Amino acid sequence: MWPQGAIFVALPHLGPIMVWLFARHRIPGWCKSPRKVPWCPSHKVLLLVWTIIYSIIGYASYLVWKDLGGGFGRRLILPLGLYAVQLTISWTILILFFMAHNPGLALLHLLLLYGLVVSTALIWHPINKLAALLLLPYLAWLTVTAAIAYYLWMDSHCPEHQPQPMGEKSD
Questions:
Q1: What pLDDT does 21 receive?
Q2: pLDDT in tens, 16-53
Q3: Nearest in space to 4 (alpha carbons), one of 56, 62, 68, 81
Q4: Residue 109 binned pLDDT confidence (cut-offs 50, 70, 90)
Q5: Residue 12 above 60 pLDDT?
Q6: Dihedral angle, C-alpha 17, 110, 147, 26, nearest 10 °
Q7: Which of 159, 157, 154 is nearest to 169 (CA)?
Q8: Could you tell me the pTM of the whole model?
Q9: What is the distance, to the nearest Å, from the Cα of residue 62 to the centroid of all Cα atoms in its chain?
């Protein structure tokens, strides 16, 4: 497995590392704002889960790459190209959440990502069943992330759900 496997496991972490470098001061307060999602996990839990998820999908991509003979052949274009697009969209969602603070646009990208992950799993399944199954925790976590994005997006468009300063009433 070494060193190719390690590269495949590390690759998905590049996007989150870049977002962390540029937005690290904003991440801990994400679920502590006045418009906090009541069931939002702490930023430490989010970080831990995303680290595990990115490592799992990186390993799954390695399994597909290995089963297709490694290298950079034509057989890799669709299964790993789709994976590369999905990683790019996933990283874009991090930017939309933590840097642009745009949960509505993040939600749209999450729905696109969900479809891409399902497509990737269907394409990977004949190549390596384990790799396809390893995408299931990713789909589950995307569901949680989409629920958070939906809550934040709806909250930003419904003033009656936003907290009001003491003594003021919303119309």
A1: 85
A2: 888 888 877 765 555 555 556 777 777 778 888 989 99
A3: 62
A4: very high
A5: yes
A6: 30
A7: 159
A8: 0.82
A9: 19
d(CA 28, CA 42): 8
DSSP letters, 46-112, are HHHHHHHHHHHHHHHHHHHHHHTTSTT-GGGHHHHHHHHHHHHHHHHHHHHHHTS--HHHHHHHHHH
Q: Say if residues 30 and 97 touch (Cβ distance below 8 Å).
A: yes
pLDDT value, residue 32: 57
35: Cβ contacts below 8 Å, ≥ 6 apart:
152, 155, 156, 162, 163
Query: How is residue 40 annotated by DSSP?
Result: P
In this predicted structure, what is the pLDDT of residue 158? Answer: 61
Overall size of the chain counted in residues? 171
Cα–Cα distances in angstroms (integers) from residue 29 to residues 3, 49, 74, 79, 168, in the given order: 37, 18, 45, 37, 25
Determine the Cα–Cα distance for residues 33 and 108; give it in Å rounded to an integer.
Answer: 23
> Once rounded to an integer, what is the mean pLDDT over residues 92-118?
90
Residue 88: CB atoms within 10 A of its CB come to: 13
**How far apart, in Å, do the first and last CA atoms of the chain sit?**
62
